[in-house]
Amino acid sequence: MAKSKKKKSKSPVTLDFAPAPESTPVPLRKQYDLFIDGDFVAPSGGSYFRSVNPATGKPLARIAKAEDADVDAAVKAAREAYENGWQPMPSLERGKYLFRIARLIQEKSRELAILESMDGGKPIRESRDFDLPLVAAHFFHYAGWADKLSYAFPGKNPKSVGVAGQVIPWNFPLLMAAWKIAPALACGNTVVLKPAETTSITAMHLAEIFQEAGLPPGVVNIVTGAGDTGAALIEHEGIDKIAFTGSTSVGKKIAESVAGTRKKLTLELGGKAANIVFDDAPIEEAVEGVINGIFFNQGHVCCAGSRLLVQESIHDEFVARLKRRIDTLIVGDPLDKNTDIGAINSKAQLKRVQKLVDSGIAEGAEFYEPKCPLPENGFWFRPSLFTNVSASHSVAKEEIFGPVLSVMTFRTPAEAVQRANNTCYGLSAGIWTDKGSKILAMADQLKAGVVWANTYNKFDPASPFGGYKESGFGREGGLHGLLPYVSL
Ligand code: NAD
Ligand code: MN
């Protein structure tokens, strides 16, 4: 393409969009109780905590705080439902419930997407176009497996495990619930789920869907609360299988507490993924992919491409293009359809991000952020970039879990592999190159559960997801995702 002087202009084309706020009414309640044995019940201790809208800092609703006695009641209800209804039921019938749930999620997906954005801060474009379609797709996928388990494990006799205790984080509240609940039920188990304390609202709307689908009482129970509620669930003797997604530090605690018990365990923990860009990559696509890889969902993504490894020969041009693109990102109201980057999930998370960024600056990395204005209230962080990062810097090693990209360089494919694998994590990685053989050779050597090539953050219920090293063990999704929920 002939390059005119004008085309090389450094100033980005910024378009002023008129605000386009989502206006569909939603059934937000003032108070959410626990979901135990098919009913909504008040917590035994009578206490509630507030869930905040991170875009305003204002409370949205009161959420029940489950005490040990409530967790116990939920586990007992799950056991009763397992023994007397769900496990003996013909698998074809179990599958029908899952199909019904999937269809109801589709019907209500708009309001669920809005509630997800209000409670968690993610842009409506993502909750509407990414989270909710995948939530429904996971229920459909596992509905299909329910009566085909003998084909999933040929020659074996797959049996359910029992009662699953599942603890999930705040970054993809409904999607994590779907990843956990759908395969568990498909294999004939029953569930007690604990959502994250900042994002419990949509889980309670999912409970209403279970009621509407006629799911027998006790098959899924939902207990809300913070870490102590999670710990009570994990430590409960009536649990046969634990599935946890969240921080590596809590994951380690759980692994310790489960050691020596009969409980089965899968952990999906943090990440510090490398997005590797070679000099022969389609550069515009790679810029978009790198931007999507780190700024998607405010960087609240365990598989976020938070380290950019760019080949030295194109470093300056690539970074210049990244900065121009970052300057055009729209930060603001999660309910506005134009928004690219919403609110940071909580004040505590904002503090964590700020602290890690401060340490990056103190260690001498070069910090870049756009000048975009931020809303006055709520929790916000501009999409930002660290260059001149060395492998020993904390921003190259620690998971920031915010919209912050650390840029490093490499010269040869071997060096790229060495640098990418130089982390205690191993959840995902990205490769950008024109050359297929390079993709295959790199993917072979990268110690990461998922490797994307010339794309990033692509998900499908049929493909397994999970980590190496301190990113955890066990897989979710696809046929592999059935394995933790069966005994063979
Ligand atoms: P966290 O691990 O503390 O919370 C995740 C879930 O575990 C929540 O439901 C929480 O209530 C529960 N929990 C907390 N302590 C527990 C305990 N002792 N026993 C049982 N359950 C417990 O994560 P966080 O504090 O919300 O976030 C901190 C960091 O975790 C983030 O900065 C990020 O690095 C990481 N994180 C990772 C993911 C992921 O998808 N892998 C998701 C969210 C957060
Ligand atoms: Mn909230």
Description:
There is one protein chain. By secondary structure, this protein is α/β, with parallel strands linked by helices. The protein folds into 2 domains: 31-269 and 468-487, Aldehyde Dehydrogenase, Chain A, domain 1; 274-453, Aldehyde Dehydrogenase, Chain A, domain 2 (3-Layer(aba) Sandwich). Helices cover 38% and strands 17% of the residues. The protein has helices at residues 68-86, 91-107, 109-120, 124-145, 149-152, 173-186, 201-212, 227-235, 248-258, 283-295, 315-328, 347-362, 394-397, 413-420, 436-445, and strands spanning 31-32, 34-36, 39-41, 48-53, 58-64, 159-160, 163-167, 190-194, 220-222, 241-245, 264-268, 274-277, 307-311, 366-368, 384-387, 404-410, 428-432, 450-453, 472-473, 486-487. The strands form 5 sheets. It has a 7-stranded mixed β-sheet, sandwiched between helices. Strands 9-8-7-10-11-19 form a 6-stranded mixed β-sheet, with helices on both faces. Strand 2 and strand 3 form a beta hairpin. Helix 3 packs across helix 4 (124-145). The protein is globular. Residues 1-9 have low confidence and may be disordered. The structure holds nicotinamide-adenine-dinucleotide and manganese (II) ion. Manganese (II) ion (MN) is lined by residues 51-52, 119, 198-199.
Give a summary of the structure in a few sentences.
38% of the residues lie in helices and 17% in strands.
Provide the fold topology.
Layout: E1 31-32, E2 34-36, E3 39-41, E4 48-53, E5 58-64, H1 68-86, H2 91-107, H3 109-120, H4 124-145, H5 149-152, E6 159-160, E7 163-167, H6 173-186, E8 190-194, H7 201-212, E9 220-222, H8 227-235, E10 241-245, H9 248-258, E11 264-268, E12 274-277, H10 283-295, E13 307-311, H11 315-328, H12 347-362, E14 366-368, E15 384-387, H13 394-397, E16 404-410, H14 413-420, E17 428-432, H15 436-445, E18 450-453, E19 472-473, E20 486-487
Parallel strand pairs: 1-5, 7-8, 7-10, 8-9, 10-11, 12-13, 12-17, 13-16, 15-16, 17-18
Antiparallel strand pairs: 2-3, 4-5, 6-20, 11-19, 14-15
The chain binds nicotinamide-adenine-dinucleotide and manganese (II) ion.
